[in-house]
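Q: Could you fold this chain for me?
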Amino acid sequence: MKENKCIIGPSATVKDLKNSPLINKAFPDFSRYAKLVSSTPIRNMATIAGNFINASPIGDFTIFFLALDAQLCLTDGKTKRELPLRKLYKGYKQLNKKPDEYIEQIWFELPVKNSLFNFEKVSKRTNLDIATVNSAISIAMNKNTIDRAGISAGGVGPVPVYLQKTSAFFDGKAVTEELVHEAIGIAETEISPISDARGTREYKKFLLGQLIKAHFITLFPGIKSSKLIST
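A: Sure. Below is the predicted structure, expressed as structure tokens.
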């Protein structure tokens, strides 16, 4: 940790994060999120940087860190540059990096007071399975309004997606059922799912809407979930 930055090395594994007091303080539900990702042996070995570079459109921890607007420090051993994670992906399995560049560090701003975070995933099996659609959201509140937000989604396009328009839409708004429905409509304009073995295009589009609802039902217990679930 440096100032309010959490710095992660390239060899850090999911297990390392799960065992980190800093991560667990910042994300009290991190252990629950981690259980949704793969199996214990893989969590013990798989690195966060490797998850990013693998460039899977449904990489769970890519989606997790996209919502936090994580930054990458890339180097070729001689020169260094910084790149937002959301700008790493140019197309399916196509990366905005040179062949000899590697991730030296990952960093993100730690959640501040009145910050909220949630990760959701839908897969055929609750555990030990790749996602059909997954999503994460990070929200900083200013009293009763959203000061800023970041939302990401996987399984809804050729690359992991930071939903930029949807994220910006939340800024300065009070949390209501109507806001959630409007946000879903905006999110649908930012995705391009395809039909495959995990579901049809329409199904994946529907799932993302359901996950956005789940974010708000989880983070804002006072919201009228009946108005969200029934529509």
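A (continued): The CA atoms of residues 157 and 193 lie 5 Å apart.
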